[in-house]
Amino acid sequence: MKILLVNTSSYYVKQKAALPLGLLSIATLLKQKGYEPKIFDATVQGGSIKKYLKTFKPDIVGLSLPGSMSINNALKLSKIVKKQGLPVVWGGPTASLIPELSLNSGVVDYVVIGDGEFTFLELIEALEGKRSLEDVGSLAYFEKGQIKINELKAPADLSLMPIIDFTFVNPERYFNKNRGCERMLHVYASKGCTGVCSFCYNTGYDKRRWRPRPFENVIAEIKYLQKNHGVDGVYFVDDLLSPGKERLRNFCRALIDSELGILWSCDMRIDQLEEEDIDIMYEAGCRWIMSGIESGTAEGQKQICKNLDLNKARKTLDYLDEVGIYSTVTFVLGFRHQTKEDLEETIRYMKSISAKSIIVGVYGPFPGSDMYRDLVEEDVIEPFESFDDWSRNANMQTIGNNLSDLSPLELKVIINYFLFLILTAKHDLDGQKKHYWLKRLTFQIKDMLARGNLRSLLLVMISAKEFLEILFYALFFPGIRKKYGLYLNPKKREEERKKAIESFE
Ligand code: B12
Ligand code: SF4
User: Fold this and answer.
1) Which ligand is nearest to the CA of 89?
2) Total domains present in the chain
């Protein structure tokens, strides 16, 4: 059986494309089981799906919906596939949360909920008459005109997942430039997170479970990419690289012992890192950490159930700076109950930390999360019942509609001020101070154009519009900036920083 696996695209995805790891893992398993899979990645490949349908002649088509911004593209492509009378399967984090809505679209026959590898394999076996559809756990489909969602499988042991075969794509199309790396790719070492943050998709999607992959498998993949494609860095896409110190240290030791000499970055809870952890991470090649702080007050931390130790986080950030690990942290403003005082204190906290980049977003509710449930119950928001609802709130979690009583204009100015600082900051690279982010942005724009289609032009235009927006809000509202002590002048910023640090002592 021939299976076409499609990574759907979105007009709004402006980051550099990333390897479609989920589809690659599914394709690898299907190939191992004797099937003939092929990947069409609409995020990097030009051309139409029609070409693939005509030349490859698949028997079934699976589409990946990593984020809700892909919904429109997935609907469009599925319509084309359905016209040819082929079965359409949807999977990925977004499809998993909306099986009924997906099936009711009229262009989807099956939805795979959660991990796709074994469920897709079993679905194919069922379509071949080797097993019954009812026996395929975590599958949603129509039975006698009614939607049926089979019992959800227990989360699979990730050691059963294949070592990814990267030959289904051209990995070099996905190279990122990142902190001294020219050829950086995405890899995964675990799934899920043990955290209970009430705004996060994880509480609904991965149900607060964290599952590791065996180190050997991860290292085997990196080795392959290094040997065959000259990869010099990897970004672990895991939501949480490690929930405990032991795994983290063992992972770092395994990387050191592998002698790959690869640089890497990851997402971690920074209040859980000790200096010894950071030392071994640096030794193992870690040069960049991304971490969610979200709120700068103890009360805010409690409200979002993150309960991050803010003092510890500040100390960790200082130490990361000292050893040379670049830190990016995120904050989310506009949670329903955020007050003016809370906002002011959060900004004071932001000024006091030594993170290299601070990314600020506005909260948007994410279906499946505890906070979304509470907001619906409290009649603050309507439940998302249509694709439009999902698409309108496309960037959920981080770029939503302000649900607090805070001024939307002030929030915009604050967010764009921090973006402006990121774009204009100079960083130590190769012993010189360089405009790192502007360089990265140029690289990304070149990458968009290299995709060589109309969509890429549109992406560049959207990026240009957003760039102008950053300039507009960051530069044209000095009154608001002054109110919060957000200065463009480096000297004044340093004074503010000192004041902020003192206020926390
Ligand atoms: C890498 C990544 C990206 C990459 C692209 C990923 C890709 N597939 O092409 C880039 C950087 C481009 C990206 C962009 C964005 N992302 Co993103 N991304 C991730 C991240 C960190 C890892 C994904 C991954 O590779 N996982 C590892 C693989 C092995 O697992 P997987 O992809 O889930 O695949 C498995 C299953 O989902 C399933 N499956 C997946 N596809 C299919 C298809 C079929 C047919 C079947 C049967 C099964 C199946 O089987 C796979 C194997 O088990 C996830 C968070 C996460 N940890 O998962 C966020 C995540 C998917 N992204 C998210 C967001 C918000 C975005 C952006 C909107 C960010 C932005 N502001 O621009 C954009 C837009 C995405 C979109 N198209 O709508 C959200 C999605 C939330 C939502 N529903 O909207 C997530 C969940 C992160 C989060 N914390 O909120 N992202
Ligand atoms: S926000 Fe981060 S720490 Fe919290 S549950 Fe989500 S992934 Fe885990």
Assistant:
1) 1
2) 1
